Each structure stands twice: as structure tokens, then as C-alpha cells.
What does this fold into?
Amino acid sequence: MLILAIDTNTPAGSVAILQGRRLLAEVNLDTPQTHSERLLPAVDLLLSSLGIGLPQVEGYDLAVGPGSFTGIRIGMSTVKSLAFSSRRPIAAVSNLEALALKIRQSQARLLCPLIDAKKSEVYSALFEARSGDLQEIIPQGVYSPDALFSRIPAHRIVTFIGSGVPVYRDRLSDYFKDKARLSRRSLYVGYEVGLLGYERLKAGQGLDSFQVEPLYFRRSQAEENHQ
It folds into this structure.
């Protein structure tokens, strides 16, 4: 199955082409341009470099959040349009799960993605790597750092990854001492979004363009100001 995977949830966006679980090519997007300016050129670059036409893409894997409200909307509108026009399914993937998958081979079995959500909050969850799968231990959501860290077993080694790690580095050290492992892996997750999405498409869990919903966890600033 030929898959196009897209993540525009954060400034470090990513686009990948996979054949099943095999990565064919990936473009990581970290430029002054906005996702609206660079996403489609990146898709075109990948397809043309591989000699692939858009009609050959059999499914789309999309990171639907959490992250930047604007970035999520750009990714969703783009993938929904492509999938609708070609009548291809979409696999909706959490950016948190993709980050956890990126560090599943780390020393620790407990994996904690931390995305800085501003306002002294993080988008996060706690996963445990078991037999190659990720089991959600603390549900995905938006948390204050203290509320989240107090729920994580302090006696076990935990690997943290994401934009929230440098922001809350000192607090992580206070809570977990030498049990905290701070990942230095890049935050580009196009390939991981593709892997997770492929399993869902293969299992018949693909959605049509009208069924895909964003994963926000909280209201946007505009919605809060309007209240």
C-alpha cells in the first residue's frame, strides 16, 4: 500500500511517502515559510522525485493533533481535499502517539511525549512499550506539568520527548531525578505517522474525508476570547 503521511501540528512539520511500513522518502519542514506555503510543494517534491503520481497514492495518514490550531487546520484541509478527490481513506493519528513511537526503542519502557501547549500547560500522555505496541497509561490530554508529573511513577525510568522537554527540563529533574531520560531525537514524525496510519488502514479503520476530526483538547484562543 502506497501511503502519503503528513504532520503539520508543529513548526517542525513533516511529509513522508511509505510503501507499507517501508519509508521511501521524507521531507522535514522547518523554514520561515508557513505550512500553507510549503506543504503542497513538499508533497509535489516527494512524488516527483519518486516518479509517483498522486492517483497512485492508496491512503493518507494525517496527524490530527494536538498542536498548533492553525497547523492542524492546514494539514486537515489539504489531506481532506486530496482524499476526497481521489476517494482514498484517511487514517487519523495522534501526534503524541507518533512521538512515543519514535522513542519506543529507548532504554525505558515508559514513554512520555511532551508538547508545549503554552499557558503553563503541556499536551501529553504516558505510554508503555509492550511487545512492540504502545499502551496508553495516562490518557492523552492537556495538563499542567505538576498535575501530569505527579501521576507518573517516579521510581521508574521514563523517556521524555517533545517541545515541552527544554521548557520544563528543571521541573523534570526535580520530579524524576536520575530516572528521567531526555530524548535528543528530532521531532519530525512523518514516518511514525505513516507507520501508525498504515496499521489502521490495513485493519480497515480508514475514514472518509467527512469523518476526520481534529484532536484539540482545548479551545483556541479566539474561542476563549469570544466567550
Q: What stands out?
A: The two ends are 45 Å apart (CA to CA). The CA atoms of residues 27 and 45 lie 9 Å apart.
